[in-house]
Amino acid sequence: MNFSGKYQMQSQENFETFMKAVGMPDDFIQKGKDIKGMSEVVHNGNHFKFTVTIGSKVTQNEFNLGEECEIEFLTGEKVKTVVQLEGENKLVTTLKGVKSVTEFNGDTAISTMTLGDIVFKRISKKI
């Protein structure tokens, strides 16, 4: 399965609660809660490049499955991690105690981030 494409956020759950829990400032949370972010995925073999655009902020992360890499966390901090493919369609990693799962199903990408009992879910559609 190839995950390449551009995905537009359609909906999200628990954005404010989750962002507060990971230490994001209130002004960022207020600005970001209504922005429909865009993600572009370039997938080639075991190599992935994610470009995420939320308003004027653009974040790029690249990694190879199963190899240590540096990913920019939500707070802007660079964190070492390993991204694994679970099954045929889930990218899974843990960053600073946050479990991140991105599941691709057809033209839908569902990103779930879990910190303790707080679950942030974002649903995006391929455009």
From TrEMBL:
The keyword Cytoplasm applies. GO terms for biological process: fatty acid transport. GO terms for molecular function: fatty acid binding. Signal peptide: none annotated. It is found in: Cytoplasm. Keywords: Cytoplasm, Lipid-binding, Transport. Belongs to the calycin superfamily. Fatty-acid binding protein (FABP) family. This is Fatty acid-binding protein, liver. It comes from Neophocaena asiaeorientalis asiaeorientalis. The gene is FABP1.
